[in-house]
Each structure stands twice: as structure tokens, then as C-alpha cells.
Amino acid sequence: MAFQPKTEPGSPPGLHSTTHINFKDLSISELVSVLRSSYEVDEFDRVEQELVTRDANLKAEIGPLKVKIELQRLATIEANEKLKNKEKEYETGKKAKESYESLLKKIKSEGLVGQNIFWELKTMNDALAEVRCVLEVENDGNKNALAELRSKNLELESENCELKQKLLEESNAMAELRSKVRVLEDEKVADKDALATLRIVNCNLINDNSRLEALVKSFKGKIVRLLEDGTKLLKRVETEADRGNHTSDPSPLQRNEDTHHFLGAATVKSRRKKNNDAPSESENYKDMSIPELVSVLRSAYEMYEFDRVEHELVTRDANLKERIAMIEAKEELKKEESCERGEKAKESYESFLKKIKSESVVDKNSVGGELKSKNDELKALKRKWVDDSVALAQARYRIGVLEVEKVGYEKALDALKMKNAELEEEIEKNLKTIEELMVENCKLAYEKGSKVLSENI
How far is Cα 241 from Cα 236, in angstroms, rounded to an integer? Predict the structure, then answer.
């Protein structure tokens, strides 16, 4: 019965309400009629969705039905093949029976059924029985040989699985050792570079220390000269004080100016230092004041080399981590490939075993040839395992050598660090000595100036 939608009162012809309709209970023709009688988009979408759902369900049902039909077709083909074989056997038996009956009729008609034919048939029957016994013995021997070959094949398969497991473990260990060797080689190169950098820094520190020692010696000489100048100035002040009774007052003023010149020499030169840059290494240290020389000492010892070395080491560490991540990714890919190869070999062995089990009559020579090929493959795997073991031992020995070298480099690096620390302590001591000498020089100058002023007063 076709679907007839009800017309709402007051609605134009052809406009029907389908709000309360269950589309799942309708047929395709009814759904099409709903589409034709509806002017609303949502109704059309609902019908379209229902049609799409039905189409998907039908396709999902068609798939298993196709598989079932294909299986039935294969079963029919197999049944037809069996029927043909049975028909052939029936025809063969029928022909044999007809030939036997014709032969029997011929013998009866010719009257040849006698004692001689009976004994000939009996001897032929005995010969056939002997041949049958021999064939049965050979069949039993073939069955025993096949059972032995199957047991041997199982043993070889188990041994092959064990060898594959060992080979996988050794390959994993070999990969880990190779990655460790690469890491140690990279660390060795990095340690060599860091050692060379520290040696350069050590040489720079030694040069700075020798230069500071020379500056300290020059400071001591300058202090001695300043003391000598102070004693000379004191003597001159004393002689001028003795002459003060016979001369006018400008001499004290001159003495005060000399004293001011003596006390303010460092101040004037320090102002000159503020206005100008620090003196270069080509300038003469004898013409510098003590504050200027101290500033030279402070600027001579810089830590930028250590900052550069630290930055270089951080960069190399980041590069090493990135390379290690890449190597681990490559090793994972290699492991997956080896697992895939092992799965393929396992599948080939399983297919070979199924082939042996499925065959009712197995040729001994072909099975022996296949087993021989499998044995050759197992021997090749054994040789590869031995080679990998030797390579693994060599890699372990190389790792030991690299670790010993790394320990030596670490000891040399620690020695250089200790030497650098000692040089830094010596430089700090020299700076402290220079500051103490400068303070003593200022004190002496102040005492001399105050003494001269008191004597003038």
C-alpha cells in the first residue's frame, strides 16, 4: 500500500506534515513519495539520511553474503572434482570388471580351466603377495624416515629459534656498545678540545701572572723612589725652614705648593685617567700613577675566556644529545627491521612445516634437499653469530681503552683546573699586595705633608 500523507487544514495542496512519521518503517517508494510531497529541507535531509543508512546496511550485509557465496562456489567446485574422481574410479573398476568377466568367459569357452592355469595363477598370486610385502616394508621404512625427518626438523626449528634469539640479543648489545663507543669518541674529542682551550687559558693566565709580577716589582721600585723623594723633600723643607728667618714669607707658600704638588700628583693623574681611557700595553708603566697601574692590573685579568669555554661546552653537550637521539632512532629502526626479518623467517618455516604436514606422500629426496638448505641457513646464522661475538669482544676492548684514555684526560683536566685556581689565588694575592702598598704610600705621603705643614706653622 502506497503511503498517503495527510493534508493539514489550511495548508496549500501538496504541503504535508511528516513530523511524526517514523521513516524506518517506510518502504523506499513511500520515502520517495514523502520526498515528493514535502517542501521542507529538514524532511528531505532526514529521508536522505535514512536512505544512506539503509544503503550502508545493505552493503554491510552484501559483504558476508558474497563471502558465503564464494565459499559455497568453492565447495561446489571441490564436490564436482570429487565426483569426477569417483566417476573415473567407477569407470576404471567397471572396465576391470568387464575385462575380468570377458577373460573368465573366454577361459570357460575355450576349456582352459585346468591344473596348469591354476598353478600359474597361484604362483603369480604368490609373486604379487611378495611384491606387496616388499612394498609394505619399504612404505614402513619411508614412514619411519619421514617421522625421523620431522622430529629432526622440529629440533632444527627450535635450535633456529634459540639462535635467532641469541642473535637478536647480541645485535642489541652490539648496537648499545657501538652507540657507547660513539659517545665515548665524541666525549674524547670534546675533552681534547676543552683541554686545548684550558691550556690556552692557562698560558694566558701564566702570562698575566708574569706581567703582574713585573708590575709589582715596578710598584715597589716606584714606592722606593717616592720614599727617596719624600726624604729629599723633607731635607729641603728643613733647609728652607732654617733660611726662613732671613727671607720673606713667599717661601712657606712655595713649600705649601710643593707639598700640594707632591700630595696631589696621584689625584691629578687619576683625574686624567677619568678623562682618558685606560693606557694600552704599548705605554710606559713608569709614567703612570699607582691608581692607573692598579686599573691596568684589574683590566688585565678578564674572565671572558672562561665564559667562551663554558658556552662552547654547553653547545657541544646539546649537539651530543641531538646526535644520541638520532642514533637511538636509527637503532630502533634497525631493531624493527631485524624483527621483521625474523618474523618473515618464522613464517617461511611455518609454511614449510604446514607443507610437510599437508602432503600425504612426501618425496624423501625433496624433503632432504629442503632440510639441507635449512641446515645451511642455520650454519650461516651460527657463523654470523660467531662473527658478531668477535666484533662485540673487540668493541668492548675498544671501549675499555677509550675509558682509560678518558680517565687520563679527566686527570689532566683536573690538574689544569687546580693550576688555574692556584694562579687565580696568586693574582688575587698580588692585587691585595698592590692595594696595601698603595695605602701605605698614601699614608706616608700624608704623614710627610702633615709634618711639613706643622713645621711651617
Answer: 8
Contacts of residue 170, Cβ cutoff 8 Å, sequence gap at least 6:
385, 388, 389, 392
What one-character DSSP code corresponds to residue 15? Answer: -
Among the listed residues 3, 80, 82, 85, the one whose alpha carbon sits nearest the alpha carbon of residue 38: 3
- Quote the CA–CA distance of 355 and 370 in Å, as a whole number: 11
Determine the average pLDDT of the residues in 411-421: 73
CB atoms within 10 A of CB 230: 19
CB-based contacts of 74: which residues, under 8 Å, 6+ apart? none
Separation CA 337–CA 197 (nearest Å) = 43
Spacing of C-alpha 146 from chain mean position: 49
What average pLDDT does the structure give for the chain? Answer: 66
For residue 181, give every residue at least 6 positions away whose Cβ sits within 8 Å of its Cβ, in sequence order, or none: 395, 398, 399, 402
Q: What is the pLDDT of residues 121-134, one digit of tens each?
A: 777 777 777 877 87
Q: Are 195 and 412 in contact (CB under 8 A)?
A: yes
Give the CA angle between residues 365, 369, 375 to the nearest 5°: 140
Contacts of 405 (CB under 8 A, 6+ apart): 188
AA identity, residue 73:
R
CB atoms within 10 A of CB 32: 15
Q: What are phi and psi of 199, to 5 degrees?
A: -65, -40
196 burial class (0-12, 13-18, 19+ CB within 10 angstroms)?
Answer: exposed
pLDDT of 433 reads: 78
All structural domains of the chain with their residue ranges = 23-102, 167-362+385-457
Which residue(s) pair with 7 in the sheet? Answer: 16
Whole-structure pTM value: 0.29
379 HSE (CA, 13 A, CB side)? 6
- 3-state helix, strand and coil shares in percent for the chain, rounded to the nearest 5: 90, 0, 10
pLDDT tens per residue, range 327-347: 666 666 766 666 666 566 556
DSSP string for 207-225: HHHHHHHHHHHHHHHHHHH
CA–CA gap between residue 21 and residue 24 (Å, rounded): 9
Cα(324)–Cα(440) distance, integer angstroms? 60
Cβ pair 47, 33 in contact under 8 A: no
Say how many C-beta atoms besides its own lie within 10 A of residue 34's C-beta.
21
B/e letters for 327-351, b = 16+ CB within 10 Å, e = fewer, are: eeeebeeeeeebeeeeeeeeeebee
